[in-house]
Amino acid sequence: xxxxxxxxxxxxxxxxxxxxxxxxxxxxxxxxxxxxxxxxxxxxxxxxxxxxxxxxxxxxxxxxxxxxxxxxxxxxxxxxxxxxxxxxxxxxxxxxxxxxxxxxxxxxxxxxxxxxxxxxxxxxxxxxxxxxxxxxxxxxxxxxxxxxxxxxxxxxxxxxxxxxxxxxxxxxxxxxxxxxxxxxxxxxxxxxxxxxxxxxxxxxxxxxxxxxxxxxxxxxxxxxxxxxxxxxxx
Length: 234
Description:
The chain is an alpha/beta fold. It folds into two domains: 2-74 and 157-226, P-loop containing nucleotide triphosphate hydrolases (Rossmann fold), CATH 3.40.50; 94-140 and 149-155, no CATH class. 29% of the residues lie in helices and 27% in strands. The chain has six helices and eleven strands. The strands form two sheets. A seven-stranded mixed β-sheet has the order 6-7-8-3-9-10-11, with helices on both faces. The chain has a four-stranded antiparallel β-sheet with strand order 2-1-4-5, with helices on one face. Strand 7, helix 6 and strand 8 (189-194) form a beta-alpha-beta unit. Helix 3 crosses helix 4. It starts with a strand and ends in an 8-residue tail after the last strand. The relative contact order is 0.20.
């Protein structure tokens, strides 16, 4: 479903963000991307979501080479994704219902169908009674749950979250991780970048980054740590 083959990314005027990264993610997997601040976690997620393109190497999403996609085709690819950011990126001049409905409006879904999907998403994250509330009135954990509802309302095949519990206390963080586990259990591919390894599910695959290098991979099927492909630095 997702394959990186010797992928590197360098931003203009900066050091190499990622270098010679190789891995596979199968449909329906729960994957954690771990590492210190600046390890390259956010860059890796942006490459998966086609928010960035690699400097070298190949990124395949459902056998589509991201580097070869025309610019006009990228928005259609991104419809496969739901994105959750650490800073939520909510619209504070719109209520919770309208925040969640936004991706549907962009995709041309409105009326009763949009209403059903929005309320189902809000119900899934425990915010159905808050649909008319403004985001500013919600707690930090509720705002993150609202962001998750917006990410899943379009029923994406792949859910990507960048440090989704970074600003939350331990209880809220545990609730958010339980939500991600629930989505993975119904077949969604879930990819989470985090520097906090304490809440990682034992059923997950773990990709560990260090200064732009993929230093190790852990997988349930393998039951042990495996090293990156030849050519990836350790």
